[in-house]
Amino acid sequence: MAVTLLSLVASRRIGLASGTMRDLATAMAGHGITAPAAEQPSSVADEADRDIRALVAGGWNPAVALRVAERDGPLGRDRTEQLRPMLADWLRLAGSRPGPGGRAVRNTVVRFALRICAEPRDDAELTAFARSAPVLLDALADARDEDRHDLIAVLEAVAPRLTATGRPAAVAAVRALRPAPATPSRSTLTLLRRLGAVPVRADLDRALAGARLGADPWQAETAVLREAFAVPETAAAVPVPTVTRAWRAALDEAVRTPGAWEEFRRRDDGAVPSRDRLTALIEVHRRADPRARAGLLDRMTLIQPIDAPPWTIAETAHAPAPPPRRVRVDDLDQPRSAALRERLLAMLGSAAADRRETAALALAGWPEPEARLPVLRAYLRGRVDLRGGTDLARALGALDETELRDDDIRRDRVARAAARLDPWELERLVPLLLEWWEQAPPAVAPAVVDALRAYPADALAGALSDRLDAGAWGFLDLLAGRPLLRTPALTRTRRRLRTEGRGELADRLLLVEGPLRGPDAGRQDAAALAALRDRGTAVPAGTRQRPTRRELLDLAATGAPEQICRALTELAGTHTGPEPDEDPQLIDLLGELLTHPRSKVRLRAHRASRTMLGRPTHLRHTELLLDDPIPDVVRMAIRTLCRAGWGPALPAVTGLLGHPHPVVRETAADGLVETGGPAVPALRRAAAHARPDRRTLYTDVLDRIRAGEDQALSAEPGPTRTA
Question: Could you give the CA distance from residue 642 to residue 13 in angstroms, rounded to a whole number?
Fold first, then answer.
């Protein structure tokens, strides 16, 4: 392997992520490989470095970023780490040029974004990819080979993060893709399932058509079938029963002609387990006659429908299970009880170290102080180690200073536990730790120093003020190198050190000015107070100017929640006419505020939309509230849309029949029944794509709609006879 890699590097067929050819010269010579001559950096590489430095140092620039993405050269690890934080900007650039003319730019930038943001990806990066899912889906239509593999992998990862209204569009885009060569272990079937779609036979046929376009169509088709029917590869070492082996051999011969396959299917008595039959059908599919493959797929779907989860096969459900463990009285994994605690406490006092350690680990996870305190005492006395990282520091508050001063208490362990306390919990132990540090042996001093350094520097300086006034300069080691707020006491201490000729020690005190107040703070406060007193009398009542529309829009876009609500109320109050407000900035602003984290802002924005905007725009805004985290808000949106008969929202309302909250499901069902006939297509489509165990969610509503229509027809008066 080393010789092959060195040869590829020497021929410049692969590049180095870091380092130079000179670093590999010795290794190449040892294998008889001639190292290539060192090349001077090209002007192209210089331009690439210059553009990347401009992006990193000067901020985002679309023109410079496009030049960087269009260079198809290798990127080192350092460049990748510099460009990766700009992932959201790269994805926005990819979607900034819609239309046929921007397809090449989009594909280039998306490919570049996948290169700089390889797996593993954090939550922020997955969120950025999820926001650009339409761009990724457009790029998937033109992607091939590794780019297609990486795009499908990213879309599978971000599918759970898409909104309920965005997933159907993504499913439609995936199903509209042209057949393309399938990459290993990556077809669109898993992506469809991640998007919440139920794969159907047409999806499987499309995936098989793409598999036939690859370099190894037989292997690709088999992989697609295994993915579709959730059948893992069987290990070669697994023994196969004689009956199954004979059945597989007969099947392999039968699928070579359509007639033989039909005859074999009629003679099949079903003696072979269904899971083995499904595996064998997948294996022989690639060798079967093309005219018999459709029948093989029909047989597979009879055994395991692709639009349903994998069945619990009867043969595996009744497989022998290991006998249940016999419960004994002295088991330690029982539910917490007083009897179990007594047994663990007895083990904690045992002479055997392993028994003490086992009991300590078990009791340390108990929330009761009666269980944790004995473990802490055993730890402080050195009887248990607790190397597993169990945190008992908070239990220190239950031990008084007298107990901590006992001779058998190990001071280093007290200090290590104290270092994990919060500052307000550590405060009562600071005098004791200072006393120990003053007389600590070398083995204990580092742990005490770490505990004291976990205490805020300014508070520690206050605790040391009496000792510093007495000239105990050794305590300055605890403050050296830590920024300290300049106080009169510390200023006197540093002046005294310089007076005594200890300038080097004085320089170790890093005094900083207060972060909030400057030298002229008093004068500024007086001026501010005078301005506040005069503001009420400077402008006569009734002459104060109302904020302009621009100021209200800016406040609603950038203010705090209370300011946003006041600005929206002002904007709604200024709207007087019956004509709707057509300002695009106002429409976009209200749409953004409908996704605000605070519920009162979302509701105020929805109320302003109803007052100021036209009916279609307001109903489109109301659709956004179908994804609201508060069930009552979702119910309000359902009722508004269904009573208005807003057709574009019916698929999303239908999807809410599977909402986790029962009240939302009930409201969605009532709203669809109230809508009546226009909701039937969406319900039928959802029922056709639903799993069998969830299909009744939609068919029950359809039955209620039909019952309502029949009742309405029966209530109509019949024709009357006139004289």
Answer: 63
